């Protein structure tokens, strides 16, 4: 879920007031990474990039809620070279990941109001179009609202070791919680109750995307915070969270490092994936005060 609807109203209010007085790795090699641009301007069809998988010189995307069940493939210039339509619903797509066989997993896991009673992740094989559904629910999930345990929102999903790893997005300043919960479900069609693995207190940040490097044992997540300055000016701060030093896929037990991505005018980073052993890409959604952005960032080594 975004700033966009809120910001549109805020900008109009401010204007009236004034008038009155943003797995698997090596798809690229370190020696060729310099050929990839530092910034990418995406095709207008990809208006709210919310999931990203990098496959060589191809970037695979999906939009956030409000779009159809589409996957967009772009070149390194952000031009759409292919658009796939999945034969499944699109409630609230939040992240995209892939396995060693090249199958993609589209996470329909958005639950901002806590009213969903079940979630879906769609496994899609771009080679033959075969699509399968992974249904799951969290322990205690009943659709009764975010104030009840079990009705989690999740915007960060990554594949590793035969599982889909989900990192929840808690609501800032709700009941004093700033926790990430790590759940997992098998990366195979079926109906499951998500298994809770760990949790982590992450002050003043909510998680919006994730990627796992299974070769170098590194998890990266985008995260942000949002607040009003002087009661009327919306601001945000975004971070790239890197965790390493974990064992047995217990990612949240590792050593955490934080890198600033932005501060000031509101933006929300919603997608991340590794380019190679040295670089990754992050993408932010556009708002009325800050345009969309896709940027190459140096990885922590």
Structural summary, described in words:
This protein is mainly β and 301 residues long. The protein has a domain at 44-222 and 243-262: 6 Propeller (Neuraminidase). Helix content is 6%, strand content 48%. It is built from 1 helix and 21 strands. It has one helix spanning 4-20; strands spanning 39-40, 49-55, 58-63, 70-74, 80-85, 93-98, 104-108, 119-124, 131-137, 154-160, 163-168, 179-186, 190-193, 195-201, 206-213, 218-229, 233-244, 255-264, 268-274, 279-285, 293-298. Strands 6-7-8-9-13 form a 5-stranded mixed sheet, with no helix packed on it. Strands 1-21-20-19 form a 4-stranded antiparallel sheet, with no helix packed on it. Strands 2-3-4-5 form a 4-stranded antiparallel sheet, with no helix packed on it. The chain is globular, with a radius of gyration of 18 Å. Residues 3-26 have low confidence and may be disordered.
Which strand order does the major sheet show? 6-7-8-9-13
Provide the structure class: mainly beta
Instruction: Please report the distance between the alpha carbons of the first and last residues.
Output: 31 Å
Strand-residue proportion = over 45%
Judging by the overall fold, what is the CATH architecture of one domain? 6 Propeller
Largest sheet: 5 strands, mixed
Count of helical segments?
1
What is the CA-based Rg, rounded? Answer: 18 Å
* Overall form: globular
Helicity, as a percent range: under 10%
The H/E string reads HEEEEEEEEEEEEEEEEEEEEE
User: What is the number of beta strands?
Assistant: 21
Task: Give the integer mean of the pLDDT values.
Answer: 86
Return residue spans where pLDDT drops below 50 for at least 5 consecutive residues.
3-26
């Amino acid at each position: 879920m975004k700033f966009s609807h809120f910001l549109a109203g805020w900008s109009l209010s401010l204007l009236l007031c004034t008038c009155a007085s943003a797995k698997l790795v090596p798809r690229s090699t370190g020696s060729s990474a310099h050929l990839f641009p530092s910034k990418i301007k995406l095709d207008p069809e990809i208006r709210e990039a919310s999931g990203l998988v990098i496959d060589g010189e191809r970037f695979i995307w999906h939009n956030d809620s409000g779009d159809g069940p589409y996957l967009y493939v772009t070149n390194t210039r952000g031009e759409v070279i292919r658009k796939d339509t999945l034969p499944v619903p699109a409630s609230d797509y939040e992240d995209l990941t892939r396995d060693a066989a090249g199958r993609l997993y589209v996470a329909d896991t958005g639950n901002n109001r806590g009213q969903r009673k079940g979630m879906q992740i769609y496994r899609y094989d771009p080679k033959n179009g075969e699509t399968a559904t992974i249904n799951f629910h969290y322990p205690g999930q009943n659709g009764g609202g975010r104030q009840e345990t079990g009705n989690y929102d999740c915007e960060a999903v990554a594949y590793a070791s035969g599982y889909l790893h989900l990192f929840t997005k808690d609501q800032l300043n709700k009941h004093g919680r700033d926790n990430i919960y790590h759940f997992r479900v098998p990366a195979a069609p079926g109906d499951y109750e998500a298994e809770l693995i760990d949790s982590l207190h992450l002050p003043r940040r909510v998680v919006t995307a994730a990627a796992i490097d299974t070769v170098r044992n590194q998890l990266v997540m985008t995260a942000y915070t949002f607040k009003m300055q002087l009661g009327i000016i919306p601001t945000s701060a975004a971070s790239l969270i890197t965790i390493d030093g974990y064992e047995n896929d217990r990612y949240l037990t590792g050593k955490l490092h934080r890198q600033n991505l932005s501060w000031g005018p509101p933006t929300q980073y919603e997608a991340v994936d590794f380019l190679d052993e040295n670089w990754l890409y992050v993408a932010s959604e556009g708002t009325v005060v800050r345009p969309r952005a896709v940027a190459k960032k140096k990885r922590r080594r």
